[in-house]
Amino acid sequence: MKQINGKVVYITGGTKGIGKGMAAALLKEGCKIAISGRKLSDVESVVSEFNSKDVLAIKSDVRDYGQEQAAVQKIVDTFGHLDIVIANAGVGIFSSIEEISIEDWNTMIDTNLTGVFHTLKASVAQLKANKGYYISIASLAGINFFANGTGYNASKFGVVGFTQAAMLDLRNHDVKVTTILPGSVSTNFNNHIPSELDAWKIQPEDMGELVVDILKMNPNVLPSKIEIRPTKTS
Description:
This protein has six helices and seven strands; from the N terminus they run βαβαβαβαβαβαβ.
């Protein structure tokens, strides 16, 4: 894209952490931002922090395809079009295969994987019309399995596979598709409260800077899969 000033961006799960960090970075670049979350009050609270007419609050649960369709339509009705979609909504519930419940499994698969599908499916027509960009936020857990990660690993391995296949489907329609696989990030994920002990981790603003850099790359370049990790471990 190179020039992203004025581009319209939709970020799912944008009320905190990585999503919020990306929204802040893109707003500074002159983008118009739509942020969604399951609780409208949470989204409106974050939007009020940005204090900009170029940030739109949307209530949408990515597990519901109809809600994602409505979210995309609201963005188009408000800003006129949609150029960039970042599928960031996700949850993590960690327990052994013996202890993980059916409900927890379904929550992770439905949010982390099916939600990513719903977001792209609902926005693909706009992305094709505007030669747009789709980014999914996966995880290094999408290529590295670990104990107590059956549901989370399954969902993130799926996100990597889904996004890479979608990249092949859309690249010749002038739609670029990238999946980012972050390692340890200082966020509120899984009810964690960031502190000075998280200083060694990737910060939300680092993710924002990365996304800006990706979007500004030469249009002839497609970074289809990017792994990012802290320079050092704790």
